[in-house]
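Q: Here's a chain of 294 amino acids. Please give me its 3D structure as tokens.
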Amino acid sequence: MKILLAIDETPVSEVAVEEVAGRPWPEGTTVEILTIVEQGQLWAMSETLESAYHQAKDLIEKATAILRMCGINAHGNIATGDPKTVILERAEDTRPDLIVLGSHRVNPLTHFFLGNVAAHTLRHAECSVAIIRPRLDEAVQARKVLLATDGSAYSEVAAYAIANRPWPPRTQVRVLSVVEVVLPTIHALFEPPFIHSGEVQKLREEALTRAQTAVTRAQAILAGAGLDVSESVSVLLDGTKDVILHEARDWGADVLVIGSHGRRGAQRILMGSVSEALAAQATCSVEVVRSRAT
């Protein structure tokens, strides 16, 4: 597995380094630690290019040492330019399986932060992206991983991404399937729109079947890897994002995993809106899993 870990001098990047060092990865995993010198901002920091490179070098060396102490094959890279552009260009060149960035816990500035480097990376990267936040209980070694699935092929890829990692003992995985009830379009002449209660019940039953099927498929993949798996199914009229966020918070998840496609631009708007909202608002780390187009 190839990981691109983008860091800077902020505490959230330290958390990201520690999380990568502490998480289980498949044998042979390599990590490139990328830090970026923004030349356009040096004047504002009263800092010379030489001193900025010196600080970047120290940052890379410290992070590399932490990962290597944990047995991870890591190396560093210093680049210059706009982080939003440089991270994606580096990902294009090296084709990592996962890009990792640090993030603050949810607060009034979260949307501003994610509206910058992290959100840009999440929106435009072709590979999987993990937004790392501090764990609620650092003392607990066991992990809680929440997989949100809709039964699609993208969700199945996310399930396999979890199953293929050597999680530590006592790791718990919960599979959550939130299926929306899609009501038929009603002509504007009906005010208010009327739908027979029997039709709504039928739609709910169909949605429940889809949700249970999605959970069963994901459970089979995860249980086949020897993971401790539980299930949760929800059927609703709207608010998929809110249900997932509440489940992650109430259960105390360390990592929320969701599948997404690898498309760009307008094709990503529908599915991307959910994953980006989860990344911005979740209290835990979020990993958006994509199957890179070949």
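Q: Can you summarize the key feature?
A: The domain at 1-134 is CATH 3.40.50.620 (Rossmann fold).
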